[in-house]
Design a protein that fits this description.
Structural class of chain B: mainly alpha
Number of strands of chain A: 11
Number of strands of chain B: 2
Structural class of chain A: alpha+beta
Largest sheet of chain B: 2 strands, antiparallel
Largest interface: A-B, 30 and 44 residues
Low-confidence stretches of chain A: 422-437
Helix content of chain B: 55-70%
Order of helices and strands of chain A: HHHHHHEEEHEEHHHHHEEEEEHEHHH
Mean pLDDT of chain A: 87
Strand order of the largest sheet of chain B: 1-2
Shape of chain A: globular
Strand order of the largest sheet of chain A: 6-7-10-9-8-11
Radius of gyration of chain A: 24 Å
Mean pLDDT of chain B: 87
Number of helices of chain A: 16
Largest sheet of chain A: 6 strands, antiparallel, barrel
Distance between the termini of chain B: 56 Å
Oligomer: heterodimer
Radius of gyration of chain B: 27 Å
């Protein structure tokens, strides 16, 4: 793990003018990106991993391997457990090991897992988990219909965190895997870990603690209406692997130390005027990652320890020029995406609606084909841009179930949106718990900052690609093009 | 025929090779030289002494005069045989190559530093070359209104502004001594045995009236006026080092060695200017902050340090 960085005197929030949308977005925004729990985990893991996330759009250091399959496996593990629990609540699943294993195959197949992969997944993760949790699953019934929640997003503008004798406040957002109201538990689930572990997998305890801190920092009126009398401070924090459960302590001095340092890294890499922040990040690279024996559990190993091919020869120039492009692309993301997030959490709801940042609609109906009909209290002609939305059918902008949806139809002041199954559970919380819906559901369009991240990632790929031999370099037009654009050597046309 | 005990697919030999890599990595990582790194007794690698001759015969290991062994990592046949370790071999090659590069870079840095200390008139050439590289790679950010006001279209600007890089560099260098042109600066280094011999060319120059316009757009005189002498020299020095090392293909591949090179460059800069890196940088940052406050927000994108890491 990384070494610390001196805490900031205070977090750089956007000024009122920027929040009101009165500042022309250009140059260094002077306010920080809206931090996610993942950014803080990355900062603790290795500041270079955080740098790759912020500047190069590569956020998979924590996966432990560059193989994207591991993420799909983790997602499936989590989704399937939610599916089992939701099916038990709905009375659709009989509780026998056989039934669970039978329902796993069609479920995993829907997500593109082949037969062998499904067997492997069941044997390694699902099977051990079911065996361990069988008794607990028996206790789930229809009476739990408003007690179990999966993938709940939490965010707060000011999360107070202990610092020396006082506290410092920072913004933070993240997603909780499971909130179990009946048993008063917050669960972070992972496929990492082994049977013989005595500690939770690296950083998972810290992650759970950060999510809990965010949730418990919310005021009553920021919570879903049904939760306003719940004291989340009392909730037990659990990291759940397929093989074991680990209880996480509320008090851990290292968390407090790490978090301030993590925020400082996020600030410094994103918007500080320091000329040498990259140098500092590399100097502080995890001590577990020496050059000849790098950190095996890092998904960015091939990016971080890439081979510098001799061609294109203009690579040093490319590096100098791309350096500022990465930064500008990050600033664009801050102006677009982070500012939007700050606005959502800081401006009054009426103002958000008035500025067109969110729509608010009353859910009129659900239909079996995942369609939601919403009645909107304003002119729908104002809808524009692309047709992907985020709807919060349960909860508030601070804490709730975020679901991706596509605009399907507009009928007068009514919208029909279709939930997009990928990334959400097949049995949606909203459909499962229709009686606990908020009276109105926010509908918003998140800025497409993923495009800038893709550009950052593509630029890094271009910067790091190349050829070892000159003949290869000459036969690859893209290398020749790079030499022509960025090189300083005299280029000759033709064979002479 | 009796089957050989050690096949490349044999788990025990693979494990032994892994241990040999580990020993090499550990030693090299703590600064042991290549000649002395990785030597251990066979038993430390989990290999029975009875297998010694077989391993030597197949050139998997080499033996030193003290009867110790290590992986024969320079042998290309071994690399073919143990493809599983491709990544480790590659890392090892990069590491050893970077050591060589760094040693040579150190020699050049010392040479340039001593040259400047004994013959300060060379500062003119160093500033001219360094500032030329810095400016040409800056892509000349500027305010669009100012670009239009001087009669450039955005396209003109993209084409013409970078062509002024050397004129601007000469403009700032001429404050420190006489200099006629680009070739003079390069020749001065060549005379000192510092090679800049590759066939690069600066972009072709443009007329003086256009140069004046570019200067006005950039508010060049204000930028120049605000920068302290030692900052002008520091930037010229660091960028020239970068330029020379790049030409000599001495920029390391790995971040670790790039960090070391960066440190070496700053050690030399501290030595020349008699100031700490932090003080040199904070002075530059304060200057850029002041320029930013005066509306010259592009200054920090032009006046910047080379990206070594």
């Amino acid at each position: 793990m990384t070494e610390g960085r001196a805490p900031l005197s205070k977090w750089s929030y956007p000024q009122t003018d920027a929040l009101q949308g009165k500042t022309f977005p250009s140059g260094n925004p002077k306010f920080c990106p809206f931090p996610t729990v993942t950014s803080l985990l990355l900062a603790k893991f290795c500041p270079v991993a955080l740098l790759h996330d912020l500047l190069h759009g590569r956020d998979y250091a924590l996966l432990g391997t560059p193989d994207p399959e591991i993420k799909r496996r983790g997602d499936l593990f989590h989704k399937f457990i939610a599916h089992i629990k939701e099916s038990l609540i709905k009375g659709e699943l009989k509780l026998s090991g056989y039934d669970i294993s039978q329902s796993f195959h069609p479920f995993a197949e829907k997500y593109g897992f082949k037969f062998n992969a499904r067997n492997d997944l069941y044997r390694r993760y699902i099977g051990p988990w079911v065996e361990r949790k069988f008794e607990e699953l028996k206790n789930i019934s229809q009476s739990d219909r408003d007690k179990l929640f999966f993938e709940i997003s939490v965010a707060n503008y000011y999360v107070p965190l202990p610092y020396k004798d006082g506290r410092k406040s920072y913004p933070l957002e993240g997603r909780i895997d499971e909130i179990d109201i009946k048993n008063k538990r917050i669960i972070e689930r992972t496929i990492k870990g082994f049977k013989e572990d005595t500690e939770p997998p690296a950083l998972k305890d810290y992650q759970t603690w950060l999510l809990w801190k965010t949730l418990s920092s919310l005021k009553r009126n920021q919570l879903p209406s049904q939760w306003r009398d719940i004291d989340f401070e009392e909730f037990e924090l659990i990291v759940e692997t397929p093989y074991k459960d680990f209880s996480v302590s509320y008090e851990n001095p290292s968390y407090v130390e790490e978090i301030h340092s993590g925020y400082a890294w996020i600030h410094d890499i994103s918007i500080s005027e320091s000329r040498i922040i990259g140098q500092k990040a590399y100097e502080n690279r995890s001590k577990d990652c020496p050059i000849l024996n790098p950190e095996k559990e890092c998904g960015l190993i091939h990016i971080c320890r890439h081979r510098n091919y001799p061609y294109p020869q203009s690579r040093p120039e490319i590096k100098q020029i791309f350096k500022s492009w990465y930064q500008y692309l990050l600033w664009e993301q801050i102006w677009e995406g982070s500012l939007f997030q700050y606005q959502l959490l800081k401006l009054p709801k009426e103002e958000l609606i008035e500025k067109g940042l969110i729509l608010e609609g009353k859910i009129i109906s659900f239909s079996g084909d995942r369609k939601i009909e919403l009645e909107i209290n304003r002119k729908i002609s104002s809808l524009g841009g692309y047709d992907e939305y985020t709807i919060i059918p349960f909860g508030t902008l601070f804490c709730g179930k975020h679901m991706r949806a596509k605009l399907s139809k507009v009928k007068g002041n009514r919208l029909i949106i279709e939930l997009i199954s990928e990334g959400v559970f097949p049995s949606e919380t909203a459909i499962l718990f229709p009686d606990i819906l908020e009276s109105s559901s926010p509908l918003l369009q998140e800025p497409p900052t993923f495009l800038e991240r893709q550009t950052q990632s593509g630029l890094l790929k271009l910067q790091q690609s190349g050829a070892i031999k000159e003949e290869k370099a000459k036969s690859r037009s893209w290398i020749q093009l790079l030499e022509a654009i960025f090189g300083i050597k005299l280029l000759r046309r033709g064979s002479k | 025929m009796r089957k050989m005990k050690f096949e490349s697919s044999d788990l025990s030999i693979t494990e032994a090779v892994e241990k040999m890599f580990q020993a090499l990595s550990n030693d090299l990582g703590i600064g042991v030289s290549e000649e002395k790194a990785g030597w251990r007794s066979l038993i430390d690698f989990g290999i029975e002494p009875s297998h010694q001759s077989e391993l030597l015969r197949r050139s998997i290991v080499e033996r030193n005069s003290r009867g110790q062994f290590r992986l024969n990592f320079r042998n290309s046949r071994i690399r073919q045989e143990f493809k599983k370790f491709n990544q480790q071999f590659e890392q090892l090659d990069c590491f050893l190559e970077d050591i060589e590069k760094l040693n040579e870079a150190q020699r050049i840095l010392t040479q340039i530093t001593e040259m400047l200390q004994s013959a300060p008139e060379y500062w003119t050439y160093i500033i001219a070359l360094g500032w030329w590289r810095m400016l040409e790679l800056s892509e000349f950010p500027a305010k669009i209104d100012d670009i239009f006001n001087e009669g450039f279209s955005p396209e003109d600007w993209m084409i013409k502004a970078p062509r002024c890089a050397f004129e601007l560099a000469l403009n700032i260098a001429s404050k420190y001594g006489e200099i006629d042109g680009f070739k003079e600066a390069l020749d001065s280094l060549e005379r000192q045995g510092i090679h800049t011999s590759q066939s690069f060319v600066p972009l072709s120059l443009i007329g003086q009236d256009e140069v004046q316009k570019v200067m006005r757009v950039l508010k060049w005189e204000e930028i120049k006026e605000k920068l302290a002498d030692f900052n002008v020299k520091m930037l010229g020095f660091l960028w020239t080092l970068y330029f020379v090392l790049q030409n000599e293909n001495l920029l390391p591949s790995s971040a670790e060695f790039s960090l070391k090179l960066n440190q070496m460059m700053w050690n030399n800069a501290e030595n020349i200017f008699g100031k700490k890196q932090q003080d040199l940088l904070s002075n530059l940052e304060n200057t850029l902050k002041k320029l930013n406050e005066r509306g010259i927000i592009w200054a920090s994108d032009i006046v910047r340090l080379p990206e070594i890491i």
